[in-house]
Amino acid sequence: YAYSRPVVLRGFTDNTKFQLLCSKSTLLKEFGSRTVKLSTANTYSYRKTLYFFGDNNFTEWQSLFDQYESPPFVLPNTSGAFSFGIAAGTGVPFHWHGPGYSEVIYGRKRWFLFPPDKEPHFHPNRTTLSWVTETYPNLPEEEAPMECTIRPGELLYFPDRWWHATLNLDTSVFISTFLG
């Protein structure tokens, strides 16, 4: 699967301690006074979806990230970079990047995936929710995406250059590991 298709993995990490540290009360107590820079997730993102990503001083958050148990799988000549997020009812529209993992700590995250050679029909300034309610029901069966919903304790591995969009179905805390 590493180079050919996404896969949901269960039982490979135990992030119980990390989950406790990511509760709303603990995050506010331990990190509530910290400044967070938010940025768009990728070049196809609409302006309103922002993530805790790239431009932050991760040494201030190291005590939290040190408790995260990364997936035990690697690809040759890659290392992981984390993206941490908290969201409710939002997601990112279709985009692609290098391979990685996504893990839900709280809540549920729905994924829609297309292989690299099958660009989805989407408008970059429309939300994933609008795509799900307006475009997705009208897609012919042969144009439907692969999809899954991941929950706490589950990892989604996505290969290089796979198109994907996400929708956080609940208030969700999630962390992605990008392999680059």
TrEMBL record:
GO terms for molecular function: cis-regulatory region sequence-specific DNA binding. It comes from the Eukaryota. Residues 48-180 form the JmjC domain. InterPro entries: Cupin_8, JmjC_dom, JMJD6_ArgDemeth/LysHydrox. SUPFAM superfamilies: Clavaminate synthase-like. GO terms for cellular component: nucleus. This is Jumonji domain containing 8. The gene is JMJD8.
